[in-house]
Write a structure and sequence with these properties.
InterPro entries: Plasmid_toxin/cell-grow_inhib (IPR011067). With 144 residues, this protein is of the alpha+beta class. Helices cover 23% and strands 33% of the residues. A hairpin with a 4-residue loop joins β1 and β2.
């Protein structure tokens, strides 16, 4: 698996849960995701959780004007996607490496367009900060 830090910025597939309203139950499907981080206290690179943002075509809903980042034209093709898609910067999840196609990434957004990658990470941080009303500074939030 190698160094988990090298996986940040990669686009890969991940098994993700979703609610199937017709069937009335939770199902799982493979979908593209952007890796934005990993746990820092992992025991082994083969037993680690990654922080991910889903990538979606948004065909059935309107994209969020602030937090859904469009991947247009050549960009979606250059990161291994088949059609215009959106990085959902406000939909952070975590998944274990065994549920991800991390060894065969479909693309590398950090390499192809580092500016869009950084935008996704910064928008995710903005979303976390705004919804929790807390600064992401551990020194300010620690008890003395």
């Amino acid at each position: 698996m190698g160094n988990p830090e090298e996986k940040i910025g990669k686009v890969c597939t991940s098994l993700e849960k979703y609610f199937d309203a017709r069937a009335g139950k939770v199902r799982v499907k493979r979908r593209p995701v952007l890796i934005i981080g990993h746990e820092d206290d992992y025991e082994s690179p083969t037993n680690i959780d990654f922080e991910i943002l889903p990538i979606s075509t948004m065909k059935k809903m309107k994209p969020h004007e602030k937090y859904d980042i469009p991947l247009e034209a050549d960009l979606y093709k250059n990161v291994g996607l088949n059609e215009k898609s959106y990085i959902r910067a406000h939909k952070t999840t975590w998944n274990h490496i065994k549920h991800m196609g991390i060894e065969k990434p479909i693309g590398d957004l950090k390499d192809v367009d580092n500016e869009i990658f950084r935008k996704a990470v910064l928008l995710n941080e903005t979303w976390v900060t705004s919804r929790t009303n807390k600064e992401l500074n551990p020194e300010e939030n620690s008890e003395d």
